[in-house]
Write a structure and sequence with these properties.
The chain is an all-alpha fold. It has a single domain (about 25-250), classed as Orthogonal Bundle (MetI-like fold). It contains 10 helices and no strands. The chain has helices spanning about 5-25, 35-45, 50-80, 80-95, 100-110, 115-140, 140-150, 155-195, 200-210, 210-250. The longest helix is centred in the last third of the chain and has 39 residues, at about 155-195. The two termini are about 40 Å apart.
């Protein structure tokens, strides 16, 4: 049986389950798919919708990019130099261990509400990127390193031609995890920090005004955006992996 047909059937099945449960429950508690779609329609037509989406996506993307760059640099340095790893590891461990809610509340005291979600996204993604890159550096084939030493390659060329090529799978895995995590923590931070524009702010307002249809509609929007990012990332990874295979064959 066609795999795409099975996926479509599974989606239809769970939508039907949702519809049945909504019929059995109070609309106030669980809106039906029809009511959710209606709310979604009015939300999308709202003049401020684009600003809301843009603000949230900007926080997620900027937070992700900053955490990726810093995490990559710190991970490479920690993997290459043991003293640096000993120095940086305590702060990475602390950041990784702090509950998201605690981190959001702490950051709220230090920065403006509009910036809190971005900072939280950066801090939550940083340890993920750092740990993956560090593991990638540590798992590089020692024979390749010995060969680089034998041919007296300088450190920069060794990092570029051996280490970076070897850590690509770890980098792709970290990127995927960070994007998914970034969406969740950014929206959660927006719920608590309540910036003027943001998907989390809309979730909070829907809850305050007891508008479950809007709450479900905004949740659908968040899930859809996250899925689009994931599919796009998979395509990029697949394309880059294929290029890498072609490069290896040619060389």
């Amino acid at each position: 049986m066609n795999k795409n047909f099975l996926k479509f059937s599974a989606i239809v099945f769970w939508v039907v389950v949702w519809w049945v449960m909504a019929k059995m429950a109070n609309t106030f508690i669980l809106p039906s798919p029809n009511e959710t779609l209606k709310a979604l329609y009015y939300i999308v037509l709202n003049k401020g919708f684009l600003a809301i989406i843009t603000a949230s996506l900007a926080r997620i993307i900027i937070g992700f990019i900053i955490s990726s760059i810093i995490g990559l640099v710190l991970g490479v340095l920690a993997g290459l130099y043991e003293k640096f790893e000993i120095f940086i590891n305590p702060i990475i461990t602390v950041i990784k261990s702090i509950p998201v809610i605690s981190l959001i509340l702490i950051i709220l005291f230090w920065v403006k509400s509009d910036m809190t979600p971005l900072v939280v996204c950066f801090l939550m993604c940083l340890p993920v990127m750092y740990n993956n890159i560090y593991d990638g550096i540590k798992n590089v084939d020692s024979n390749l390193i010995n060969m680089a030493t034998l041919y007296k390659m300088n450190k920069l060329d060794t990092i570029k031609n051996i280490y970076f090529h070897s850590i690509k799978p770890y980098l792709f895995a970290a990127t995927k995890t960070c994007l998914n995590l970034g969406f969740r923590v950014t929206v959660a931070a927006e719920v608590l920090s309540n910036p003027k524009y943001g998907l989390g702010t809309q979730l909070f307002d829907s809850k305050i005004y007891l508008n479950m249809a809007d709450l479900f509609a905004y949740t659908v929007i968040i899930v859809t955006l996250s899925y689009i990012f994931e599919i796009t990332l998979k395509y990029i990874i697949k394309k880059n992996t294929l290029k890498g295979v072609i490069y290896d064959v040619k060389h």
